[in-house]
Task: structure prediction
Amino acid sequence: MKKIIVIFSVVCIFATSAWAQRGGHNRRNNRQNIVDLATPKPLPIPPVLEGIQNGNTKTFNMEARHTSHDFLGTGQKTDMLGYNGASYLGPTMRVKRGDRMIMNVKNSLQGVPTTLHRHGAALDAKDDGNQNQSIPAGGTWKSDIIVKQEAATLWYHPHAHGQTAEQAYMGLAGFFIIDDDNPLTKSLPSTYGVDDIPVVFQGKDITEDGQVSFRLRGMAGLVGRTLVVNGAVNTYFDTKSKLLRLRLLNGANSGVYTILFGDIPAKLIAGDLGYHQTPIDARQVTLASGERAEVVLDLSKFQGQEITILAHESIRDTTHELVKLKINDITDLKTSVPTQLVEPRKALAISDDAPRRFFSLRSTMHDFYINDEQYEHGTINFRVTKPEEVEVWTFKNTDERYPHPMHLHGTEFYVLSVNGRPAPKEIRNVPKDTVLVNPQDVVEIAVVYKGSGAFPYHCHILEHEEQGMMGMMEVAPAE
Ligand SMILES: [Cu+2]
Result:
């Protein structure tokens, strides 16, 4: 009986998705047998690290280490990296708006520098964990910030010069969740690991005997043939929740994934850096490398069923299983999705003579460029002298084939338009730090500076970043 339901759900999802009309029937052929080799296992949930609390100060001790990890659940381990003893990834760091957050990051990797960058965090450059805060092997780096931003699902990963792509691919990443006192969101599912689930998905090339190595092939970045979710392949999640909240993170080096909810009623509640003002009905959500979204699934009609959530990756045009939900014994946990999630944000004051910046994105046979320049360590590409002014940035992707998810450090931004039309509602009126710029597209954003110092802006396909698609801006202290 269960088998029939699974197949039925899958068929429904194919039939209702847009890409099904563009060769979606090849789906089964594209499925990788690595998934079939993997032992089904419960979705791993990264443990929460609350930090050592002293009043409003929380101290987090992080350590990057060499590890070995069993992706397939077959007992075959492969050399990887992890934080704080995890064999892959790191714990979920959790703080509240207003907290003072001290972080000590120890580099226990052999012979290579690392950093710890909190992706999406509003802070000064000295605390950014970018390539200018490099931690030598054996060294420790200290950061001390006040958490000033609203509730959001952020993440962390290394950002050391020439090391970012390999270290992230090999396992150095984790969630960084910020909470706040917003009363409007109190009724949302919020029991971590029970009805509020972090889900990081990453494409990986895994051999039949479970081995992973960092090897770049081609210009698309490391998309990977197998989807790893929270560090595992072929996962299921047992749930009794009527409403299930997923904090979705595309933590892949490369790849644009559309998560397909099929016939499950889903509401999109948050983007990269905060809640949408009102929930948005969603059949799917598309996330490029570095992007996050939060959704709440209504499982009330699926009692006793097993439903597979699929993820379609568009660069390689392949479909993967994200996770199987096994829904049993639904108990009403008194959660609900409010009709309003956040007070209307103050309209951005974009003056007619707002500073405007233009960035062309292109590639050649081997390299990637922003405004015909490649990243050079130590170079500042432009200076922001009036950070109190909202700026309008335009990205134009002149590539025919490669998408470029553009990420800005030390800022938040709002997507104004895509190809001259208002931004789609899924990414409109919500603070973001990463935006997908598809081939030939023009994307306009309104940038709000959140810290001072030298910050990178770059493509979050980590191989593109390391092949030159990054620049540096020096932001003056706010007056
Ligand atoms: Cu790119």
Summary: Confidence is low (pLDDT under 50) at residues 1-31.
